[in-house]
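QA checklist item 7 of 12: single-chain prediction sanity check.
[x] sequence parsed
[x] length recorded as 437
[x] structure emitted
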Amino acid sequence: MMVDKPKLSGYRWVVLAVVCLVCILANYMQYQVSALAVYLMPMFGIDEAGFSMLLLMPMLTAVFLSIPMGTLGDRIGPKKVVSACMVVAVLGGFLRTFGDSFALQMVSMFMLGAGISALNANLIKIFSVWFMDKAQVAMGFFFGSAGVGVICAQMVAPLFGSVFMSYLSAAIALTVVAVLWLLLLKDAPEGVEAPRGGESPVKYFKVAAKSRNVWLIALSYGFSMAACTAFAGFVPQALIISCGVEPVTAGLIASCAAFGSIVGSVVGPAICNRLGKWKPYLVVTIVVGTLLMVYFWYGVIMSGSIPSLPALMAVMVLSGAFGAINGPIVQAMPYALPEIRGKYAGSAGGLISTVGLLCSYFIPVAVSAVAVGSYVMNLGLESLVFLLSVGFILLIPELGPKGSIARQIAEREAAGSPDADPMAVDAKEPEAVPVRA
């Protein structure tokens, strides 16, 4: 039975552009701290530990806000939730500009994380309405825009001549983006009712939390994000200390991985969508990414010498690309689950974001404790953590558009049941039950 797919609205590209602008500014403003560290540390009298606390404070915001903002988005819609949090972020941007103490800087960075935390929690809900079964393609652009923000921070932030002017310009830019969000963002296309209801937010979260597949997706996302974040963070130091590479050259090599992550985030989901099957693609790309990580720590860091600079840069581009490919696809998976779909996507997204952030903090800390200062062991263990994310993928059923679950959902929705109701999922249908690979 052929099911006609609804036509996607052209306005979805406006929605995607606004969402990506929010992501670019959020990452730009967070990583301004890294680019301006040589000025900020003496200005506020902080050491490396204080600097790390300041840089990572927006991630702490996400730990607290992801679940409540996701469940609230399921009830009243993403636009209202993210709009309120964007106002908080704008106020944080100006507080950071004029704040003259480390305590105020910490508070402002926490506030800056509010907008992007609420957006991350409701991202799959927004994309599933506007892009439907192509949500992972939109997710790829979003992930790529994060890399754009980081690279822009490193290149642009130091050019303003002072911390004050750099921060002020960013706060003004964030205000403009917040206004664009308020004016241009819509919860759903014209004539389409956004999937939400009036139930308690607790009910939405309970539905997401009871889904075994949501937890598997969250753990896969968390393990891969933790490994990639920590691995990329240690690349410059490992090159400088173990191979005697100049700091500028080490930074250039590390930036190649960031560029590769942008390419992988955009191109990878598009290829996966054309293939129609997600699991084999994810398994292969994660294994390839692991092998590239192994080459770096075993063939370069352990040996203490690097191949030609162009060759190593090419390897780092590929490593960044394969490290980033799986993130957009995995984070788009909840919409493909019969028990989640659009109605509970915000709650699922909030849960996945929270687990991912917790993994990104605790796993690298545990790995560093085991490695005890050895870059070879540290990078080796991070590559193993990245590979372990495959295990969770294998436990998730095939959710791609050419899989049996996707066909069942399409037929059910074509018959007039657009929203997923977990009580309506037939537990006897083999395709709707998690399959162990």
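[x] summary fact logged: Confidence is low (pLDDT under 50) at residues 418-437.
[ ] second reviewer sign-off
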